[in-house]
């Protein structure tokens, strides 16, 4: 499969240059385990930029919903950003997120494009988190410089998209209008994938999707996505008012997906609440299955391990764009490597700073620990293999 992807990408306008390693289950530079293995300790290799707080949608589960606005201030000068990125010694990846980063053409031209070109010149891999519901023209501009187009996909039909994607608009949005956006999103994703771009569709396992996850996967495959990324939903921002599902339901959804998945599509799981150190044998069996299945990976959580989030308006640096942890630095006055080092010594990071090399695991996400493991000291646990 990977060779096939590589060949088709070489002939496609949005394919990454052939001298860059192919992103694949064997090479995922967003996973903090790589730099941990390489340097023997966590290093800052990944920077996420919040480039807008504007969005044309208001998803019911939006993890940054409370920070969305109707207007916004000018961005910080990119010179300052590039200087700070130049200083990051081990930088390997840059992600851009929002809001909807392509909501304003001005952001596409004045922020996304220059950042993507900067990254490509340095051989740094990039990801854009977008709902791909805007005109294709915007995606066409950036796709030749981008490595991963990351979209959300939690639907089996346009009605779901209407119910989920516009739940928090605070006004009535006509189903005919959202149906057009749904079709455009599918069309855009398909065109980008056909052009050789790694389109990665993310679904969350939650009260709406856990019994329909196989159908969602099928549609993602039909869109031509190269990767299906799957995370449980955690109660952050808008999502905190939604019903939670049990760990049993979550586990069943993961198993269903593993049984139903298309074998050629890379399945990437993240922020799962199951670990190789679990006392529950069934959870450990699931972890072993995830490890052994071809084209399936479980990405360790980058937030605070190899990645920080920079707000491109205030310059504030966060451990993640969605947790309610205050900023712990600012790029106006500090180097990113220094800010990252401060976080490594923070008690919250140290509480989840475990590492079991044999399991390829470096501990839980902060939201996972908060939701399921408040009384557990992970630094005292070991993988049971
Ligand atoms: S690294 Fe931490 S979470 Fe992972 S198996 Fe070991 S103790 Fe458990």
Structural class: alpha/beta
Portion of residues in helices?
A: 25-40%
Number of helices: 13
The rough form would be described as globular
Got a strand count?
A: 11
Keywords: 4Fe-4S, Iron, Iron-sulfur, Metal-binding, S-adenosyl-L-methionine
InterPro entries: Aldolase_TIM, rSAM, rSAM_sf, rSAM_YfkAB, YfkB
Domain Radical SAM core: 39-268
Protein name: Radical SAM/CxCxxxxC motif protein YfkAB
Give a short summary of the structure.
This protein has about 375 residues and is α/β, with parallel strands linked by helices.
Topology, pairings included?
Elements: H1 2-10, H2 32-39, E1 46-50, H3 78-87, E2 93-97, H4 105-122, E3 125-129, H5 136-142, E4 148-152, H6 158-165, H7 175-194, E5 198-205, H8 213-222, E6 227-232, H9 247-260, E7 266-270, H10 281-292, E8 296-299, E9 307-311, E10 316-318, E11 329-330, H11 336-344, H12 347-351, H13 366-372
Parallel strand pairs: 1-2, 1-9, 2-3, 3-4, 4-5, 5-6, 6-7, 7-8
Antiparallel strand pairs: 9-10, 10-11
The site of iron/sulfur cluster has 15 residues, from loops.
Describe the overall structure.
By secondary structure, the protein is α/β, with parallel strands linked by helices. It has 13 helices and eleven strands. An eleven-stranded mixed sheet has the order 8-7-6-5-4-3-2-1-9-10-11. Strand 6, helix 9 (247-260) and strand 7 (266-270) form a beta-alpha-beta unit. Helix 6 crosses helix 7. The longest helix has 20 residues, at 175-194. It is globular. Iron/sulfur cluster binds at residues 275-277, 354-356, 359, 361-364, 378, 381-383.
